[in-house]
Amino acid sequence: MNMQQRFTTQRVLSPALYGEILLCHDNATNEQVVIKKIDQGASASRKTVQRQRVVLEDTRFEQFVNKTLHEEGGHPNVLTMQTMFAADGYDHFVFEYCNRGALFDVMEDATDKQLDPYYIAPEVFDNVAPYDPSKADVWSLGIILFLLLTGVPLVNLPSKMDESYMFLSRFGLKKLIQGWELEDFVSDDAANLLEKMLCINPNQRCTLQEVAQHPYVLRRT
What are the coiled-coil residue ranges (predicted)? Predict the structure, then answer.
């Protein structure tokens, strides 16, 4: 049984930048898996399949990271890539299937590779091309952290149409925290990290590596 015969596609879960996310049946193990199917041409040209937008996502680096995690025994908080193969001009990354939890719900409900608007980075919302997906992820993680700490979303839209976003853009996060009287929920070191993550200008936004090395994170790992 070759790799193409091994997996039977059941349905499309979500579009992806260079292809799509598929729910599949593994005929060898009789289990469900998720396959990220990547158009090799789109990946090489760094252009999205649906909108032909130039992005900076590097699938070779993604492959390297997933392969390294797999060889090191995986991580309890990261879906494990079981195998990978190429066929008919597509790369296929095969992951374990997570059938519970919010991440699955997001993938299930996604129709345009977008999260709810208040998670989207400003440069993504404004359709700036090219943009750095890792910097956009930092913004989204900052929005999630703010929501976890305070219980309220920071903005409804990362747009000039949104009053909170405009206040953030003009006065900064600490002023917003003070104005909303959230000091009891956001410590000084958390506010410092959030300010670095939620810079409007992605070039001034911190990296994922800098997030991981921030004192607020290190004290909790």
Answer: none
